[in-house]
Specification:
It contains eleven helices and 27 strands. By secondary structure, the chain is α+β, with helices and mostly antiparallel strands. The strands form eight sheets. Strands 12, 13, 14, 15, 17, 19, 20 and 23 form an eight-stranded mixed beta sheet that branches. It has a four-stranded antiparallel beta sheet with strand order 4-5-3-9, with helices on both faces.
């Protein structure tokens, strides 16, 4: 497989697109030749901002204000759409607020415009299942007149971008398990809040749900189930029972956790293709929807190095837009310990959890009395390198201001003989909750009762809690991390256990963050700071 040359070509008026360089997919099983040049495909193009977003957000912006000051300028949008149309692409959408242009065209047309070659290969995806997809290597090129204006071109290569962060067990095989209402008691969720008037969005990159499962599950909990709506993105739809990776378990876990903890909230489930473009488009569509959601839950991710630089930046900026609009985005910190499933012998943070604009959610092992809510012990979830909470430090994003005051000892946890990390970026996670499948969540999936764990369960747990906070306070929080890090109450501090390289300790640590929630105490602490 030859790498695409990204040298500027004055003859065809193209220049390299920074950050678009892409290595070959891991574990390629077969190379099937060039993609049919007449096949119609769609891609997502992101443009530059007019003005940078402020580092700290005050009151949520309106979508109109975001577009006017921080979206794509009318001039950039006109130039980009005009250029792409002239070169033969079809303009499907051009949105100034999200700075997004959706293009369609044949493989031949779009490969020519962006200076690349697309092959069809079969590779083993992030879940270990073989997937046939379009594939490119090297960098992309863009028309010279759009140099500095276009910042990302996603979707030409449609290899799977992320894995769902969950582990399922048959009900009989689980040691201890909890229903979401039991966890609400254990974690002291506000008793007088039910999510009324709030919207929680959930991002899914596969799988589906059936209403019969939801009806049976909520009926068994004696809960009047929430309104759940499936929203298709980029051609994906709700398709239960057809995903070979078992993604139905992820979808139903997310819905059942949010629905049981915030039963009066409206739940919108965004189904998107598992590609860099699909993932980004789902987050954009969810955060720019009306009414604006209180929170977005993301249970999918992959280590930072598995993303192109342009995709990481575009995704981080989309989440920054979401926080500016008042949306709190929660994301699973990973289920494969401090290495995050990488095989290079190094530690890695999971993305998008490592974005400083995301509330990163780590995992614990919980021993509690469901009847009284008393926690007997809570430790770092670690059943081995392939079943342990993610956590550590970003190699991409610097430590944000609200993490600058972390105690020095929290930055150097390591059981021997692992080396001390040399320098640290953004620390992951921010918060935590039960994730060990041996002390997991009782759910119903495709007609079967089972127990599921993983940090993918913690993201919807915190998304539901944020919705309850929004209902109680009458406000949306957006980037809530500065508020959380400035509070001295509201968390169960987890001080025992490790996730591989990093060890838990008093205060924040790169295994469980600030700790698991004491919901009512945290709400009181937040109210005192408003």
């Amino acid at each position: 497989m030859s790498e695409q040359n990204t040298t500027p070509n004055p003859a065809d008026g193209r220049v390299p697109l920074a950050g678009s360089e892409r290595p070959a997919a891991a574990r390629i099983q077969a190379t099937l030749g060039p993609v049919d040049p007449s096949r119609r495909i769609e891609v997502t193009v992101i443009l530059r901002r007019q003005e940078a977003l402020p580092e700290t957000s005050g009151e949520p912006m309106s979508r109109e204000d975001l577009a006017q000051r921080h979206g794509a300028s009318a001039e950039d949008l006109r130039l980009a759409t005009g250029t792409f149309a002239r070169l033969g692409a079809e303009i499907l959408e051009a949105d100034p607020a999200s700075r997004r242009i959706r293009l369609a065209g044949t493989v031949q047309e779009l490969s020519r415009i962006f200076g690349t070659t697309l092959e069809e290969v079969t590779s083993s995806g992030p879940h270990g299942h073989d997937v046939t997809h379009r594939h490119r290597t090297g960098g992309l090129q863009i028309p010279a007149e759009l140099d500095g204006i276009v910042t990302a071109v996603l979707g030409l290569d449609d290899r799977p971008q992320a894995r769902a962060q969950f582990h399922a067990l048959p009900l009989a095989a689980a040691g201890t398990s909890y229903t979401p209402p039991e966890l609400a008691r254990i974690y002291n969720f506000p008793a007088d809040a039910d999510g009324s008037g709030q919207v929680v969005a959930i991002i899914e990159l596969g799988g589906g749900f059936g209403q019969a499962d939801l009806d049976a599950y909520f009926s068994g909990l004696r809960i009047h189930g929430p309104k759940v709506t499936a929203v298709g993105v980029d051609g994906a739809v709700n398709m239960p029972g057809q995903d070979p990776t078992g993604a139905d378990g992820e979808v139903l876990l997310d819905i059942e956790v949010v629905g049981a903890l915030a039963p009066k909230a409206d739940i919108l489930v965004y189904f998107a293709p598992n590609t860099d473009a699909g993932f980004l488009d789902a987050v954009i569509n969810a955060s720019h929807a009306a009414p604006t959601p209180a929170s977005i839950s993301i249970s999918w991710g992959q280590n930072e190095d598995a993303w192109t630089a342009q995709a990481r930046t575009a995704f981080d900026q989309a989440v920054a837009d979401a926080t500016a609009l008042g949306v709190t985005v929660t994301a699973a910190a990973g289920d494969n310990g401090s290495a995050d499933g990488a095989t290079d012998g190094k530690d890695h943070a999971d993305f998008p959890a490592s974005s400083p604009h995301v509330l990163a959610c780590g995992g614990t092992r919980l021993d509690a009395d469901p009847a009284t809510g008393i926690i007997r012990s809570e430790t770092v979830w670690n059943d081995g390198p392939k079943s342990a909470t993610g956590g550590g430090y970003s190699d991409t994003f610097p430590a944000p201001a609200w993490q600058s005051g972390l105690p020095a000892h929290a930055r150097h946890h390591k059981p021997a003989p692992k080396p001390t990390p040399g320098s640290h970026g953004r620390g992951v996670p921010d918060v935590s909750g039960v994730a060990d499948p041996q002390t997991g969540y009782k759910v119903r999936v495709d007609g079967k009762d089972m127990v599921i764990g993983g940090t993918s369960a913690v993201a919807p747990l915190w998304a539901a809690l944020i919705a309850l906070f929004a209902q109680t306070t009458g406000r949306r929080f957006g980037q809530i991390q500065p508020l959380l890090y400035s509070r001295s109450a509201g968390f169960h501090d987890v001080t025992s256990g490790n996730n591989g390289t990093y060890q838990a300790a008093p205060g924040w640590d790169p295994c469980t963050g600030l700790g698991s929630p004491d919901g009512a105490a945290l709400l009181a602490a937040i109210k005192s700071g408003l």
